[in-house]
Write a structure and sequence with these properties.
By secondary structure, the protein is mainly alpha-helical. The chain folds into two domains: about 1-30, no CATH class; about 35-85. It has five helices and no strands. It has helices at about 1-5, 10-20, 25-30, 40-55, 60-80. It is flat.
Length: about 90
């Protein structure tokens, strides 16, 4: 939210949507289980990385967050494979 407010396009509509994203029912329901909130944490960082990539300010953040997202989601998918066995 701070990043959006410091940018030129930090409009009141952006503040409203950022607050709605932060206070969504999913986050409130799962705030005690941090393991399921990785996508919620990574999404704004991934968007920031894409913005930096498009602006030509580097690819490091996007690559790191994308790799971290793939690793954590692969781990979660492989740890739940026992559920689907017959």
């Amino acid at each position: 939210m701070f990043y959006s407010l410091t940018e030129e396009e930090g409009t009141p509509a952006a503040v409203i949507f950022l607050t709605a994203y932060a206070l969504s029912a999913f986050v409130i329901a799962y705030w005690t289980n941090i393991m399921w909130l990785d996508a919620v944490i990574f999404l704004p960082l991934m968007v920031l990385g894409i913005r930096r990539l498009v602006d030509g300010r580097g690819w490091y953040l996007y690559t790191f967050i994308l790799a971290l997202g793939i690793i954590t989601n692969f781990y979660m998918g492989s740890s739940n494979k026992d559920i689907f066995r017959k």
